[in-house]
């Protein structure tokens, strides 16, 4: 179960942070105005319609990539491919995918340390299997998001009575959110708080996601995936974060500019030890969460694979035995994808078998994909 050390703070209190200023990991200084409709950096404004690269697009680092394809350096094999293996652009009939966009939604609440470590440890073999199995698809975008808007949202109100193990790394009166850091669904580039990497993951493209051009892709993922256990947002909102991450509109859409590609399949993995409860979790429900992904793929449901790691106490031979909540809403969402929805127990000692099973479904989805003309 998720350990919560204090209750969620009302929105009216959180809004007291409006007008705070802070430093972005890129080195730029931003004066952040927290409102429902905009996020400003003192010069540019991230509005619900601004998606132009280099101007309020969530890429303050300036990646020097005018093509916007996320590749700023020479293409590097993820894990050495066999010589002569087809690469993007070699498919002769125009069918099948040559690109895959991976989205990981990771719960950053207090009980998720072991699960984040397991996920990070399982990624190298997973991406190695993807690279060796998907013949023509060697072009990846990989983004990590967590399940709240800003890990330090409640910390200003604890400055008078700090609690051990809470708001680790937060300096009262000093720490402020950087551009896109306080946006639900924005890609994680610098995990903060207790048990996090607490480092600038410094993706080579300067954006909020990794690509196959990353010199050390497993290492970059492991940096981002350790999102920490210092969430001050209760309850977690994994499905709302997921929907925001793939939206082409709104703040998260601007922050994640260039992540989603029309000619790629989309693989979503979510990992949480609590259900996304109706009434106090993500807005919407199974149908609206499904539609958000389908809309992101321009109506092509066949281009989507969904992987879920959550509690299994509602199944025979459960591994959690009370170590994680049963998750009826998350299971209903996963089941709605039929054979393209793959479940794994979050309480498994490792996730290698889960991901190896997923590789076959991803490969089939890739083979059957018809890229838009």
From TrEMBL:
Alphabetized, the UniProt keywords read: Signal
Write out the ranges of the annotated region (Disordered). 39-93
Domain of life the protein comes from: Bacteria
Position of the signal peptide? 1-22
Database matches in InterPro entries: vWFA_dom_sf
Q: Where is the composition biased (Acidic residues)?
A: 56-68
Give me the stretches of Polar residues compositional bias.
39-49
Q: What is this protein called?
A: VWFA domain-containing protein
State the species of origin.
Enhygromyxa salina
Higher taxonomy: Bacteria, Pseudomonadati, Myxococcota, Polyangia, Nannocystales
